[in-house]
Design goal:
Blueprint: H1 12-24, H2 32-60
Helix pairs in contact: 1-2
Protein backbone atom coordinates (compact mmCIF):
# COMPACT_ATOMS: atom_id res chain seq x y z
CA UNK A 1 0.00 0.00 0.00
CA UNK A 2 2.78 2.42 0.84
CA UNK A 3 4.41 2.03 -2.58
CA UNK A 4 1.21 2.71 -4.54
CA UNK A 5 1.38 6.55 -4.54
CA UNK A 6 5.16 6.74 -4.91
CA UNK A 7 5.11 7.76 -8.56
CA UNK A 8 3.24 11.03 -7.96
CA UNK A 9 3.93 11.71 -4.28
CA UNK A 10 7.11 9.96 -3.10
CA UNK A 11 7.02 11.37 0.43
CA UNK A 12 3.31 10.73 0.89
CA UNK A 13 3.65 7.19 2.22
CA UNK A 14 6.14 8.26 4.86
CA UNK A 15 3.95 11.16 5.96
CA UNK A 16 0.86 8.99 5.88
CA UNK A 17 2.32 6.67 8.50
CA UNK A 18 4.42 9.08 10.52
CA UNK A 19 1.76 11.73 11.10
CA UNK A 20 -1.10 9.65 12.44
CA UNK A 21 0.98 7.12 14.29
CA UNK A 22 3.55 9.59 15.55
CA UNK A 23 1.87 12.95 16.03
CA UNK A 24 -1.70 11.94 16.77
CA UNK A 25 -0.95 8.93 18.94
CA UNK A 26 1.55 10.83 21.05
CA UNK A 27 -0.72 13.81 21.76
CA UNK A 28 -1.60 14.31 25.38
CA UNK A 29 -5.28 14.54 26.22
CA UNK A 30 -6.53 12.00 23.68
CA UNK A 31 -7.82 8.71 24.95
CA UNK A 32 -7.28 5.51 22.96
CA UNK A 33 -10.69 5.71 21.28
CA UNK A 34 -10.11 9.30 20.09
CA UNK A 35 -6.66 8.39 18.76
CA UNK A 36 -8.01 5.43 16.83
CA UNK A 37 -10.84 7.49 15.33
CA UNK A 38 -8.48 10.28 14.26
CA UNK A 39 -5.99 7.83 12.79
CA UNK A 40 -8.43 5.60 10.91
CA UNK A 41 -10.73 8.35 9.67
CA UNK A 42 -7.97 10.27 7.92
CA UNK A 43 -6.15 7.33 6.34
CA UNK A 44 -8.77 6.34 3.70
CA UNK A 45 -9.60 9.95 2.88
CA UNK A 46 -5.95 10.76 2.23
CA UNK A 47 -5.48 7.73 -0.01
CA UNK A 48 -8.71 8.39 -1.92
CA UNK A 49 -7.65 11.97 -2.56
CA UNK A 50 -4.24 10.92 -3.79
CA UNK A 51 -5.63 8.25 -6.13
CA UNK A 52 -8.20 10.73 -7.50
CA UNK A 53 -5.40 13.20 -8.21
CA UNK A 54 -3.38 10.46 -9.90
CA UNK A 55 -6.34 9.63 -12.19
CA UNK A 56 -6.82 13.30 -13.11
CA UNK A 57 -3.11 13.74 -13.84
CA UNK A 58 -3.14 10.63 -16.04
CA UNK A 59 -6.03 11.99 -18.11
CA UNK A 60 -4.68 15.52 -18.40
CA UNK A 61 -1.04 14.61 -18.95
CA UNK A 62 -0.86 11.24 -20.71
CA UNK A 63 2.61 9.70 -21.00
CA UNK A 64 4.43 10.52 -24.20
CA UNK A 65 5.52 7.71 -26.49
CA UNK A 66 9.03 8.44 -27.72
CA UNK A 67 9.56 5.00 -29.27
CA UNK A 68 7.96 5.96 -32.61
CA UNK A 69 10.61 8.27 -33.42
Amino acid sequence: MAAAPADIAPDFATSLFEFPFGDICSRPGLDLRAREIATHAGFPAALNGLFAAKAVFARRFPPKDFSAG
